[in-house]
């Protein structure tokens, strides 16, 4: 199964940073690069009003090794080639418990 992890993506998350007013802000920060398998799940194209603008919502699954993402959280997201894949939820691989499947969503306008 690990030979199918052929896509390299960046794992990002929200971290707490203290600003100049000594307040705690949450900012996006790259955690690390990981190897994964990207599986398309569902796509939908919708028109915005009566204009020629279209919005494309794409759902996909990102499968990676459980050891690559130690503490998954809902505020994590993946980036690949300037596309942001927002994490909706995740589920472990119940067969051998060595992989995580992240359900993600990306929107193109």
TrEMBL record:
<dbReference type="InterPro" id="IPR008767">
    <property type="entry name" value="Phage_SPP1_head-tail_adaptor"/>
</dbReference>
<dbReference type="InterPro" id="IPR038666">
    <property type="entry name" value="SSP1_head-tail_sf"/>
</dbReference>
<dbReference type="Pfam" id="PF05521">
    <property type="entry name" value="Phage_HCP"/>
</dbReference>
<protein>
    <submittedName>
        <fullName>Head-tail adaptor protein</fullName>
    </submittedName>
</protein>
């Amino acid at each position: 199964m690990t030979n199918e992890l052929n896509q390299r993506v960046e794992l990002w998350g929200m971290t707490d940073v203290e600003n100049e007013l000594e307040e705690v802000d949450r900012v996006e920060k790259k955690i690390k690069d990981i190897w994964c398998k990207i599986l398309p799940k569902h796509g939908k194209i919708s028109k915005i009003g009566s204009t020629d603008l279209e919005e494309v919502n794409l759902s996909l699954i990102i499968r990676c090794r459980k050891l690559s993402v130690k503490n998954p959280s809902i505020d994590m997201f993946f980036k690949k080639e300037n596309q942001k894949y927002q994490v909706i939820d995740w589920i472990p691989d119940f067969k051998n418990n060595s992989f995580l499947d992240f359900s993600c969503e990306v929107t193109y306008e």
